[in-house]
Amino acid sequence: MGMFDFIKDAGEKIFKPGEAKAEDAIAKHIGSYGLDIAGLKVEVDGSTAVIEGEAKDVTTREKAVLVAGNIEGINKVDDRMTVAAGASGADFSAVTGGSSAVVGAGGTGEWTSRTYTVQKGDTLSAIAKEMYGNANKYPVIFEANKPMLTDPDKIYPGQVLRIPAEA
């Protein structure tokens, strides 16, 4: 659990005038990626999204936070999700690339990935070179961000990506 910072003016444009509340739009958007979260509840206070529910695993939890944060108009995500019993994860408290996270020490369900905020001119290869020391490891980052990424050449400045531990 923790608070994650994003860039408010970057991200997918899912809010449409006259449509459902922001909470409903974000929950629907998270669901559109097929993320398995029991009892998903989203609250929006200004530009902060609060997400609750039980994710099937740590990866699903991480992706849900990033999906919500990578929405135009959201600049913070308060992760209050839990992870289903039996799922495990390691503590992660170091974040790179301009994103920040406040994550509790140790315990099941903690983040296992770092995050990286895409800068103008970045490519997945350049990010892989910076994160892993090897540009050819870009598929690791691409796979870790599916289904949010559908093409390794389609990333945008301000987007926050999952950077898994080196395999």
UniProtKB/TrEMBL annotation:
LysM domain segment(s): 114-163
Ranges of residues in domain BON: 17-85
Keyword entries, A-Z: Cytoplasm
Subcellular localization? Cytoplasm
Query: SUPFAM superfamilies under this entry?
Result: LysM domain (SSF54106)
The record ties this protein, via Pfam families, to: BON, LysM
As given in the record, the signal peptide range reads none
The protein's matches in InterPro entries, at most eight in alphabetical order, are given as: Bact_Kbp (IPR052196), BON_dom (IPR007055), LysM (IPR018392), LysM_dom_sf (IPR036779)
Any GO CC annotation of this UniProt entry: cytoplasm
Q: What is the lineage of its organism?
A: Bacteria, Pseudomonadati, Pseudomonadota, Gammaproteobacteria, Lysobacterales
The entry's protein name is Potassium binding protein Kbp
